[in-house]
Design brief:
CATH class of the largest domain: Mainly Alpha
Number of helices: 5
Strand content: 15-25%
Oligomer: single chain
Shape: elongated
Number of domains: 2
Structural class: alpha+beta
Strand order of the largest sheet: 1-3-2
Largest sheet: 3 strands, antiparallel
Number of strands: 3
CATH topology of the largest domain: Arc Repressor Mutant, subunit A
Distance between the termini: 51 Å
Length: 120
Amino acid sequence: MLTKKTKALMRAVYDKAVAKDGVCLVSQNDLLQSIPYRIEFNHEDLAPSIKALSNEGYFEVIETERKGDIYYCFTLQQAGYDFSRQIALEKRQIRMKIILTVAGVIGAFLLRSLISAIAG
């Protein structure tokens, strides 16, 4: 299971890599700009998060430095390509939980109304 930060990072890498057949070259600054502002992500958080995603098999990464800027070359692996399906599955599960909660509330209300009508 991915954390909020690693999920945001993976979404940024996935969006850039899928547009270029699973391989992309991204600067550290471009990568950080791709992450939404509502998620607190620093330069210090980037390297450990990239390493964690790489170790989990989402992508292979090569880090290079050019003119003082750090660049990452990402190559998506099978888990990286499956990322969009994983996100869709999580959304589907959340929708199902909401539907079950609403159905439970409606069922409890109907049961209470039925008992009230019978009892009195």
